Backbone:
């Protein structure tokens, strides 16, 4: 394992699940930053994980849902997107056959489907991500 004398960004993954009703699954954050705000399910990758595997793990930990293949959407790396430190997030997505029953777990206080055109207040840059997803994938 290497150690570096200079700071490095953290890497996270986030999942966009879209139902046939054009709803997206969000979690209510149970911890700071943005405690009580809604966000895409996701979190930090482990050092020995592939990105898609990390996204599947985080999705299951926070919503109880197991998903098969996820498709990679984009990476987001705005300097100030996370108030804790520099974070780069890789986004994955999947279309579901229905609004699957989700059960909040890990650091999620709640998990719920929201219509893509009626989103609550979102944490981080997740509103921008969903707007770009709608324009790029759902067009």
Residues:
């Amino acid at each position: 394992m290497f150690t570096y004398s200079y700071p490095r960004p953290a890497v996270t993954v986030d999942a966009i699940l879209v139902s046939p009703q054009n709803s997206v699954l969000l979690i209510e954050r149970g911890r700071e930053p943005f405690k009580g705000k809604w966000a895409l399910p996701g979190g930090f990758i482990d050092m020995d994980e592939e990105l898609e595997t990390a996204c599947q793990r985080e999705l299951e930990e926070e919503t109880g849902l197991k998903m098969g293949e996820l498709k990679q959407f984009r990476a987001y790396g705005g300097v100030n997107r996370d108030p804790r430190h520099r974070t780069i997030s890789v986004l994955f997505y999947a279309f579901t056959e229905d609004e699957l029953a989700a059960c909040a777990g890990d650091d999620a206080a709640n998990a719920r489907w929201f219509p893509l055109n009626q989103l609550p207040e979102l944490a981080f840059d997740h509103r921008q991500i969903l707007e770009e997803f709608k324009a790029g994938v759902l067009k």
User: Anything to note?
Assistant: The chain has one domain: 10-136. Strands lie at 10-18, 23-29, 38-39, 42-44, 71-76, 87-95, 108-115. The mean pLDDT is 94. The helical segments are 51-63, 126-136.
